[in-house]
Amino acid sequence: MKTVIRIITKVTHGLLIISFLGYSQSNINIIQEEVFMNVKFKDVYLTDIINTNGNVEQITSLFSYTSPSNIEIESYGEDIGMQERVFNFENGMMIAFTWEIIGQDPEVVRLESNSITINGTTLNLGDSIDLLSNNYLLRTSGNGLNSMVIEKDGAPCCPIAIRLNSFNRIYKITYYVVP
Q: Of the candidates 100, 71, 76, 69, which has an alpha carbon nearest to the alpha carbon of residue 87?
C-alpha cells in the first residue's frame, strides 16, 4: 500500500510540475502568421520595414511623415564583417538592421516604437493595455511589473514585447530577434 501511495504521490508531483511548466510557457501569446505580419509600428507594416533591408531611401519613403533630416543613421562594423545600420528617428523610434554575412540581405534585429497596431487596435506609450483586449495574457517579471509577449506561430525567434508599468500602462514597445 505504501508503494502505491508513493507512486501516486510521484505521479501527482510530476503532473504538477508539467502543469506549472505549461502555465509558464502559456504566458506567451502565439498569434497566426497573418495577424503577426499585419502588425504595424507607427502605421507601417512590420513586413514592409523588414523588406527594406535597411535601405536608407526605402526607410525614408516608408516613414514619409518624417524627413531624412529627422533620422539619425549610424553604420558601423563593416570593417570587421559585422555590419549594422541603426535608424534613430526624432520621434523616438529606432530600427536596427544587421548583416550576419556581408553581401546577404540584412535583418531587423531590434525595433523600438512609440506605437503599435495589433488586429486594428493602436496602442501608444502611456495607454492602458486594456485597450487591446482581454484575449492576451500578461506575464509578471521578478520586479512585479507586467509585460505582454507576442510571437508568430512557429517562430519563437522574433517576439514583440510590450512592457507595462505598475498601472498596466505601456512604457516600452519592442520587436527583437533572439540570437
A: 71
State how beta strands 28-31 and 146-152 pair.
parallel
The three state secondary structure string of the chain is CHHHHHHHHHHHHHHHHHHHHHHHHCCEEEECHHHHHCCEECCEEHHHHHHCCCCHHHHHHHCCCCCHHHEEEEEECHHHCCCEEEEEECCCCEEEEECCCCCCCCEEEEEEECEEEECCEEEECCCEHHHCCCCCCCEECCCCCEEEEEEECCEEEEEEEEEECCCCEEEEEEEECCC
> 42-46, 52-56, 77-81 — which is least confidently predicted?
77-81
Q: Shortest CA distance to 40 belongs to which of 149, 101, 121, 95?
A: 121
Q: pLDDT tens digits for 97-112?
A: 998 776 778 899 999 9
